[in-house]
Amino acid sequence: MSVRWDTIAPAARTLGLPPPLAGEGWGEGLSAMGLPMVDPEHPDWKVSAQLRANARALRRNSTDAERILWSELRGDRLNGASFRRQVPIEHYIADFVCHAAKLVIELDGGQHYSDEGERAGARRSAAIEAKGFKVIRFSNLDVMTNRIGVLETIATAVAERAPTPTLPRKRGREKTALAEKNQP
Q1: Distance separating alpha carbons of residues 23 and 39, to the nearest angstrom
Q2: Nearest-5° angle of CA 59, CA 60, CA 64?
Q3: pTM of the model
Q4: Strand 134-139 and strand 103-108: pairing?
């Protein structure tokens, strides 16, 4: 098996370590067949190391409003909808994202209510919506004083946008068992 060293983390190359399999260790890894783990259908999902580091820092240093809302959204607590926080999209980092519903929740502090802040927010929303997401904005004050109203708005948006679960299909043997049961 030939190894593509350009897909392995630089530190591993300098140490001469063998590449990890997919899902193990550092970096992108290699599949069991020795191919790089990059989704060919979504090559533009690459996120720069700097943007990824910024998202990590924002997760570590959440605002009070973000912590309160995350406590309600995490672990599929809001009607089973799965949310992630501080997710890079385009050149921005969205506060909360529900990928199934293509929904972004943004929390705005006081700096967002200046003229420049509103223009920057509009540019940010336009870039995220160009990726197919719907952006909902709440002020930090809304989250702190009207948590139930904020959650109801989010739940409604998720219900409108998320794909509906399909009902289980009847299997062939179940149909024949019912037909035999109904025979005289």
Answers
A1: 14
A2: 80
A3: 0.63
A4: parallel
